[in-house]
Amino acid sequence: EEDSPSPFLRLQEKKKQVQLMQKALEVKEEDFRERMKDITCRWKDLHSKEAQLKTYMEKSGRTLKENDKMRIQALKKASKEREKKMQKESELLRAKGELEALRNKHQKLCNRVQKYSIFNKYLEDVVKISQFEEIQEIIWRYKTLVRVHKDLLQSQQRHKEMSEQAKVLLDRYTEEKEAEILQYENELVQLRLRFDQAQSDILSWEARWVDIQNTTAKKTQQLGTIKLAILNLFQ
């Protein structure tokens, strides 16, 4: 107890600590108020500068909008002129391509005419020595013969397909009938076996029937004898 401090001393120590903490808190609060004053001043300056900047931006914005409008109009005009120029160049290139294609086609036609001129001379000679009066009649006759030949080939192909189908159907029908015949033969064999078994059973049953009749006759005779004996006894 002598070594431990008294409650009074501990209380005084705690009060000192509380006073020190209170002073430190007051110092911090004063510092905080000073900082808030400084921040408030800076905030007012910032609002003032923001208002000035907003006014300047509005003026600059109107100027920029006018400049952008003029620039956009100039760009649109230049773009339209560029598109017109590109369209004309594209049309010119397309026209050049079409012209070149027509020239190539014309050259090919000329080559074909030159190549087939010998056939025209041949057809003219054929007209002279044949019953035809014009080359076009020969061409029509040739087309008719080609069409008839094509129709004959198609008809032949159809007949061939129908024949193949008929053959397939005939083979299938033959297979089905052969299977039915085989089934009927098996059934006939089974029926014959059953018939033989029935005949064997008939003979057996006939023998049993004869035995039954014999036994019945014996029993009837015995019954008659018994009745007669009973009648004699009764009398």
TrEMBL record:
Residue span(s) of domain DUF4200: 11-128
Top-level taxon of the source organism: Eukaryota
InterPro entries (alphabetical): CFAP_domain-containing, DUF4200
Q: Which residues form a coiled coil?
A: 75-112, 174-201
A GO BP annotation: spermatid development
KW Membrane (keyword) present: no
GO CC terms for this protein? cytoskeleton
Q: Which residues cross the membrane?
A: none
Q: Which UniProt keywords apply?
A: Coiled coil
The protein's name is CCD42 protein
Please report the organism this UniProt entry assigns to the protein: Himantopus himantopus
